[in-house]
């Protein structure tokens, strides 16, 4: 059975605290969602501002292959502005729960019902496809909800949506009212689930199991408060979990990761590391028992293969490391220690791991080189000197001295700030040697106050387009940034060099 994916990243997702997008940004996200294969996108709420109207207009004029909807209240001017935005599909809503009626709308149930019917009739008279949402449906009196859905269906609505506006439903209850809505309307029913109790995806799945043919979802689960059902979790659960009924969507799952990162970057909301499917750690393995299992058969600890969602498995070593995982990482670089050497390297890892350190692949290779006595797998690039000056009224300036494979190099450059100057100076050196470029730079504070630790993530690319990323944590933004870059450069140079060695 085909399930329709209605993506509301650009509407409910944009209502996330602290998020506001320009029309150009909204258009770029819309294109990305269309390429991902969503069936419909909710492009925005045209009446709220001129910028929003413009954004929706740009999206409706783009010739995308998905359907494009816009949100409206059950108010004529809202519906008119949807038409002005070039929409031929609206998602119109009015609250139906007593708590919203009394404290927000100051209306009786009958008055709200009347507004709903009027809006659906008006939308149809303007030639629109109309999807009707009874806001706060899951806290609405069940009999009244059935009545509202039945009446708007009679008034000509094309689709019905059940919003669990404050994430208050259980999977059992949303299944019940989904069945009610289908029985009362005989229309296609969607569910719009919020994550206030972490149940958004479970509720959306339950709605679908009860007969809903569509779910409203967002990329990375962003949205009001705790967010909405996440597109990646919902679509992959439908695809992979052992339901008796087979479900399909039009989502091109191999584009999920890329889309998630793209949107996270534009919107400025990081994906939590342990987030299902798209989090940094979702396909990472450190523990020895797990990596051993994965290496003999990935199904042991990976319910789905990372490639299915456009990702790669990541093995790392730390105090939970086992010899198999470590050797697998080394083998990626063509390094094959003897059993005794493996044990020695592992002992070193455990010592560092017990001090709370995560070992990067560069550090692992450097430890391996100590044990194996091979010069070739040492850290190639070392920072031997560094100073930076900054202030007001002068252009920040950096001086960097690197030792690369035994030779000294000096680079100096200006920048808009001390970090920029330092990175420019490093790039001046490495650009000459191996055309390495810093593609991405991210800075986050990981604790509060002026003594906060900062986390720098960078990504480095070589001339062939190979990319590596690295991360560094420290107290000083400038030196931490420099360390992250040096680490990244080491990784990419090592990978390159060892690959060449393997080929020869
Ligand atoms: Mn919502």
Describe this structure in words.
This protein has three domains: 4-267, TIM Barrel (Alpha-Beta Barrel), CATH 3.20.20; 284-356, no CATH class; 381-503, Double Stranded RNA Binding Domain. It has 16 helices and 16 strands. The strands form four sheets. The chain has an eight-stranded parallel β-barrel, surrounded by nine helices. A three-stranded antiparallel beta sheet has the order 11-12-13. The chain has helices at residues 23-36, 50-60, 76-84, 98-105, 109-125, 142-154, 171-185, 200-209, 231-240, 256-267, 288-296, 323-332, 339-354, 361-372, 418-434, 477-503, and strands spanning 4-7, 40-44, 67-73, 89-95, 129-135, 159-164, 189-193, 214-217, 284-285, 314-315, 381-389, 397-404, 407-414, 437-445, 454-461, 467-474. The chain has 504 residues and is an alpha/beta fold.
The computed structural class is alpha/beta
Global mean pLDDT: 90
Residue share in β-strands: 15-25%
The CATH superfamily of the largest domain bears the name Aldolase class I
Task: Provide the CATH top-level class of the largest domain.
Answer: Alpha Beta
Specify the helix fraction band.
40-55%
Bound chemical compounds: manganese (II) ion
Q: Domains counted in the coordinates: how many?
A: 3
Radius of gyration (CA) equals 27 Å
- Number of helices, where a helix is a run of at least 4 consecutive DSSP H or I residues: 16
What profile does the largest beta sheet have?
Answer: 8 strands, parallel, barrel
């Amino acid at each position: 059975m085909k399930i329709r994916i209605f993506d509301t990243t650009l509407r409910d997702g944009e209502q996330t605290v602290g998020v506001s997008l320009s029309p150009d940004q909204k258009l770029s996200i819309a294109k990305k969602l269309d390429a991902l294969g969503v069936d419909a996108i909710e492009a925005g709420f045209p009446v709220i501002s001129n910028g929003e109207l413009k954004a929706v207009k740009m999206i409706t004029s783009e010739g995308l292959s998905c359907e494009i909807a816009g949100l409206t209240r059950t108010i004529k001017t809202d519906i008119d502005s949807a038409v002005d935005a070039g929409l031929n599909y609206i998602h119109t809503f009015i609250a139906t729960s007593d708590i919203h009626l009394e404290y927000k709308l100051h209306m009786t149930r009958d008055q709200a019902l009347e507004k709903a019917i009027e809006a659906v009739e008006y939308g149809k008279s303007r030639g629109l496809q109309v999807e009707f949402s009874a806001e706060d449906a899951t806290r609405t009196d069940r009999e009244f909800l059935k009545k509202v859905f039945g009446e708007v269906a009679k008034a000509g609505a094309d689709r019905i949506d059940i919003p669990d506006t404050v994430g208050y439903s259980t999977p059992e209850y949303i299944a019940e009212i989904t069945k009610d809505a289908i029985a009362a309307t005989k229309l296609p029913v969607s569910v719009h689930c919020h994550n206030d109790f972490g149940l958004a995806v479970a509720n959306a799945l339950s709605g679908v199991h009860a007969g809903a043919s569509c779910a409203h979802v967002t990329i990375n689960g962003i949205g009001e408060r705790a967010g909405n059902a996440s597109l990646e979790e919902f679509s992959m659960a439908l695809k992979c979990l052992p339901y008796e009924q087979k479900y399909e969507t039009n989502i091109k799952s191999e584009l999920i990761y890329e889309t998630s990162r793209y949107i996270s970057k534009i919107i400025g909301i990081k994906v939590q590391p342990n987030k299902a499917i798209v989090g940094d750690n979702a396909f990472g393995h450190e523990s020895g028992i797990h990596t051993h299992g994965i290496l003999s058969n990935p199904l042991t600890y990976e319910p789905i293969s990372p490639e299915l969602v456009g990702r790669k498995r990541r093995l790392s070593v730390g105090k939970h490391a086992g010899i198999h995982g470590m050797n697998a990482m080394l083998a990626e670089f063509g390094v094959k220690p003897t059993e005794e050497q493996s044990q020695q390297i592992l002992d070193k890892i455990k010592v560092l791991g017990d001090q709370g350190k995560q070992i990067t692949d560069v550090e692992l290779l450097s430890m391996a080189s100590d044990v194996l006595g091979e010069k070739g797998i040492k850290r190639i690039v070392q920072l031997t000197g560094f100073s930076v000056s900054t202030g007001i009224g002068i252009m920040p300036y950096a001086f960097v001295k690197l030792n690369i494979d035994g030779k000294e190099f000096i680079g100096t450059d200006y920048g808009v700030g001390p970090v920029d100057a330092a990175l420019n100076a490093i790039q001046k050196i490495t650009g000459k040697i191996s055309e390495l470029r810093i593609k991405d730079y991210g800075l986050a504070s990981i604790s509060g106050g002026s003594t906060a630790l900062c986390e720098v993530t960078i990504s480095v690319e070589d001339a062939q387009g190979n990319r590596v990323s690295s991360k560094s944590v420290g107290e000083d933004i400038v030196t931490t940034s420099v360390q992250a870059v040096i680490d990244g450069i080491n990784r990419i140079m090592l990978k390159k060099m060892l690959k060449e060695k393997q080929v020869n």
